[in-house]
Amino acid sequence: MELMRTCTSSQRHLRHGEMLVNLTTTRQEIRTFSTSSVRCNNKEREDSDSSRLSTKLTSKQALLARRRRPLSPLERISGLLPQDALSPEVMQLREQNQQEAEGGTDTQGSVTHRTQQESGHTDTLAADKTTPKGEESDNHHASDVAMVPNTSESRTSATLPGDSLIVFGELLIAEYYKKGQVEFRKMFKPQKGTRLHSSWGFILHDNIVGLPAGQFLKTSMGLPILIRRASLEDYVLYMRRAPAIAYPKDATTMLMMMDVTEGDRVLESGSGSGAMSLFLSRAVGSKGSVLSVEVREDHLRRAMLNYSRWRTSWSLRREEDWPDNVQFHNADLCTASSLLAGQGFHAIALDLTNPHLVLPTVIPHLHPGAVCAVYLANVTQVVDLLEGIRCLALPLLCECIIEVPIRHWLVAPARQKNGRYCTRKAPILEEDHSEEEEEEERTDQTDEEDLAADEHPAFGGVPYIARPCPKQLSHTAFLVKLRKFVQ
C-alpha cells in the first residue's frame, strides 16, 4: 500500500511538471483564452512546487472560503496562466479578486460574464458585485437583480423643448374617431386608481400619466382613443355650467369688437358660468385686469370655481401660474355705482337680459372712443337695447349687429363598403362600344388588383366627398357693437 501511494504521488508531481513545461513553451502563442471544459483537481493545486503559483493559490483559497461556493473551472485555470496569456476580461477579474482579498471585503452577489466559444455555447464567469455599473460591457447581464429601465428619463428625453408630460390633475380630452369623424369626446382629470370609461372600453388613468399628450391608447376592447390636453375652447364647452355660456365663436368676436389687448382693464357684467371671464383674462394678460360682476350668488360661485379649476390645470401643464387678474363681485350694476367709483375701463362686455338698464351706470366709466359689446340671445332684446339708448340719449353709436354662424363641412376620401378607396375613372371617348366594355372590364380588374396590393393609392387618384355636415350649430346670440363718442 505504501508503494502504491508513493507511485501515485510521483505520477502527480510528473503530471504537474509537464503542465508547467507546456505553459512555458506556449507562452508566446497564447493570446486569447477559450472557455472550454477544462478540469483541474484541487489536490493538484495544493501540491504545487512553484512558490509564485502557491502564493496565488493561497489568495484564491482565501477568496473561495469567503465566497462559500465552489470555483468554476475557468476561475481555477485562470490562476495558473501567466498574465500576458489572459484576456482583458480575465485580467479585470483577477485584479478585482486581489483588491477584494487585500481589503477583506465580503462578496455577497455576482453577475455573470458571458464569453463566446467556438461551438457557440457559453459558460459563466462570476464577477464581484463591486464592479462599477458603467464599466459593464454589452454582454453582461444581472443574474440576481432585475434591471428595470428608468422610464422617467426616457419619456422626458422624448419630449420637445417646452413640452411636458401628462401629470395627475390636469384637464385632458379623450376622443374616439370612426371613419374620420368624432364619435366620442369627453373631458376628464386623471386621478390615481381611476378609469376612463366609455362605450368602447376603459383606460386606466395610471397608464395615461407620464406620457406625452396627443397619443392613441387602446381601451380594454382594443379600440384606439386619442388623449390630448384640453384647450380653453374645449374647457369652456365641456365645463360645468350654471346658465348658458358665451360660445367661443361669439366670445372671440366680441374680443375683436372691443379690441382688447394686454394691459387693458375690462368690465364684465354677467359672469354666468365664467366663459367670457376666462377669455378676457387671457386677452388682458398679467398686466391687465377684469372686473366681473354677477347679481346671482350661485352663478358667481360657479364662475369662480370654473376659473379656479382652469388656473390649476394650467399651472400643472405649463409649470407656471395663470394670471390671477379677474376680480369677481356679487352686485347689481344698476345700484352699484360705488363699486365703479374712480375707475375707468378700456372696454365693457355685457351679457344681461336687460342691458339697457345698466348702461347709464357703466357708460360714464368707459373711455371715449372705446367699445361696449353686448351679447343678446333674442332679437327682441336688441330692439329694447336700441330703444333704451334712444330714450336715454346716451352717447353711443350702434356700429353693427351681427350673428356668427359656423358651418361645418364633411370632406373625406370616398370609400367603398368594403373599406377600400374609390378610384377616379377617366372618360373613354371611343366609338366602338365593344372595345369600350372590354376596356372597362380590364380597368375594373386592374383597379381591384391595385387596391388589393396597395391600400393607399397615389396622389390625386381618389375622389373626395365634400358636403355640409348633417349636424350644424344653429343660432346662439346677436352681438351688438356700441361705441362711445364725446358729446
From TrEMBL:
Domain (tRNA (adenine(58)-N(1))-methyltransferase catalytic subunit TRM61 C-terminal): residue spans on this chain: 244-480
Compositionally biased intervals (Basic and acidic residues)? 41-50, 130-143
Keyword entries, A-Z? Methyltransferase, S-adenosyl-L-methionine, Transferase, tRNA processing
Q: Which domain of life is it from?
A: Eukaryota
**Can you cite a GO biological process for this protein?**
tRNA methylation
Which positions fall inside the TR61B FKBP-like domain?
A: 168-222
* One Pfam family linked to the record: GCD14
SUPFAM superfamilies from the xrefs? Answer: S-adenosyl-L-methionine-dependent methyltransferases
Task: Give the molecular function GO annotations.
Answer: tRNA (adenine(58)-N1)-methyltransferase activity
Instruction: Supply the InterPro entries for this chain.
Output: SAM-dependent_MTases_sf, TR61B_FKBP-like, TRM61_C, tRNA_MeTrfase_Gcd14
Q: State the reactions this protein catalyses.
A: an adenosine in mRNA + S-adenosyl-L-methionine = an N(1)-methyladenosine in mRNA + S-adenosyl-L-homocysteine + H(+)
Please note every region of biased composition (Polar residues).
95-119, 149-159
Keyword check for S-adenosyl-L-methionine: yes
A GO CC term attached to the entry: tRNA (m1A) methyltransferase complex
> Which Enzyme Commission numbers does its entry carry?
2.1.1.220
Q: Where is the composition biased (Acidic residues)?
A: 432-452
Region (Disordered) residue spans = 36-56, 95-159, 428-453
- Quote the PANTHER family the UniProt record gives: TRNA (ADENINE(58)-N(1))-METHYLTRANSFERASE (PTHR12133), TRNA (ADENINE(58)-N(1))-METHYLTRANSFERASE, MITOCHONDRIAL (PTHR12133:SF1)
Q: What is this protein called?
A: tRNA (adenine(58)-N(1))-methyltransferase
> What is the originating organism of this protein?
Seriola lalandi dorsalis
